[in-house]
Amino acid sequence: MVQCDSTRFDATFAALADVTRRGVLEQLGRADASITELAAKFRMTLTGMKKHVGVLEHAGLVRTQKIGRVRTCTLGQRRLEHEAEWITQYHRLWTARFDALDAVVAELKSKEIAGGRKKRK
Amino acid sequence: MAAKKESNRTTVEQKSDTEMVVTRTFDAPARIVFEAWTKAELFQQWWVPKSLGMALRSCEMDVRTGGSYRLVFANSMAFFGRYLEVVPNSRLVWTNDESPDGAVTTVTFAEKAGKTLLTLSERYPTKEALDASAGSADGLPESFAQLDAFLAGR
User: Looking at the complex, does the CB of residue B51 fall below 8 Å from at least one CB of chain A?
Assistant: First the structure.
């Protein structure tokens, strides 16, 4: 069974807690980009974007590579998928259970209504 | 129809390092929803939905404070614990003793205008226990299905 590294797990959630960083991930999901391009896209200073990319990189969600004078960012492998996967599975389990519970509750309710009518004649 | 589905959506939130919270609204008074959680013959109709590909072999529940429960799956895997709190139509708290790091589950039933907002919280003893569960316990349905398939093939 898979056991998460809790420190990285924290880093991932912290990284995802910011709207700009989620935007950066979305953007990198479409195409690799340099920090300069990302800064322009999100109307941010180079320093500000470097900081965001640093957080994402620390969480393993993004990789960067410096080629010449340009630092290119790409999506990190699998990290996001893993966290998203267990939340999705957890959600799927409870949705399945509660959909089934909904059906049981609906049946009990209709029986009660029918029973109530009988009692009242 | 779409609007109804929307309001009855199941939400999942990680509240803290050690707590997961699931909510859902049911279109019935609290006493009816509570009944479905506390009568074994009803509980087993939904706790292990068919879509998960598992089956329960037995379900014993002594729903009162200090009472115990035991669920056994077709593959002999058992889940068991004790009820720490039972407040009719409003609150259930139980332990999950199959693991030393098992969560304490709290379910509250809040009725409003004939509907019931159900909130289920799983509180783990440590952050590590939740993380471990995130990597394993929630994959259980899948592992069960695999184990069942394995056993069936023997």
Answer: yes
Which residue of chain B is at minimal alpha-carbon distance from A110? Answer: B28
B135 vs A99: CB contact, 8 Å cut-off?
no
Put simply, the answer to whether A89 touches B8 (Cβ < 8 Å) is no
- Does A22 lie in the same domain as A48? yes
A1 within domain boundaries: no
DSSP 3-state of B60: strand
What CATH number has the domain bearing residue A48?
1.10.10.10
Range with top average pLDDT, A9-13, A53-57, A116-120 = A53-57
ipTM over 0.85: no
Name the pLDDT band for A32 (thresholds 50, 70, 90).
confident
pLDDT tens-digit map of A35-52: 999 999 999 999 999 999
Domains of chain B from N-terminus onward: 2-152 (3.30.530.20)
